[in-house]
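Task 17 of the worksheet. Students: predict the tertiary structure of the chain below and write it out as structure tokens. Keep your answer in the requested format; marks are given for formatting as well as content.
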Amino acid sequence: MSAKILYKKTRDDLFYLLVVGFIGLLRLLPRRATIALMRTLGRLGFLVAGGPRRRTIAHLSMVYGGEKSPAEIKILARRVFIHFATAAADLIRMPVILKQDINRLVTATGLEHLDRAFATGKGLLMITCHFGNWEILGAWLAKNGYRMSVVGTTLFDPRLDKILVETRDRAGYTNIARGKGTREIIRTLKKGEAVGMLIDQDTKADGVFVNFFGRPAHTPTGPAVLARRLDLPIIPIFSYLQDDLTYRIECLPPLTLVKSDDEAHDIQVNTQKCSDAYEAMIRRFPEQWVWMHKRWKTQPDQLQD
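Model answer:
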């Protein structure tokens, strides 16, 4: 084993042990103590994580520079870090939250849209984004009888990915690895169940450019393609953190999709509708979206021959 490989293995092993130990500690603490500790780490992360901090400020400036001062944008960027530290606290404590009854922490509106879609027995697509706390959203839906799977990105360390997948399994919904589960997605839909998808990031998945906050953003087309081919609804649904540290789930009406003889046109238009639903929710609670992600990394001129 080369020195470089040995160094990487040792580093990854130490990081894994540190994470596992930290998770164990936080699950022993009361929720508010865990959140207080994680928010402190979030504030620290804002100070020391130069790359993510600069990207967050740059993206917020790009969108809100005409209406907020640099000082206001910096405060908002800091709140983004604090929010995701809070969301991480609840993800880590998910087994405890489930044991104590997740309904004490979550309220929901608009569930009639889900109920009507499930009643058809045809299956449905739910779209959300890396906003609020999407893990709480999935856990609450599963624990309240909504049969579903989610398509998720595999973590860099298989051991940490196993912890995340097991957390989802305990909550009652199935994890489908992104890029590896097309057949499983279709089987789930044909059983009349729901598949949750997050398409608000620039990934290697097949996609099109849509307008997102006034700029082209390369966006996966999975929901639009599946909805068109299987004649299924796309229902936007979001979970956001409230000031009292509870969560609110908002389920919106199914998107009004277009279907014509031009498949490429339909996929473009319907993917834009998905993105518009994301943008509208993010504008309401901008501190609860992942502005540190390289959302506008890929641009149309980069894909030209």
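Marker's comment: The beta strands are 106-109, 124-128, 148-152, 174-177, 194-198, 207-212, 215-220, 234-241, 247-251. Residues 3-26 form the longest helix (24 residues).
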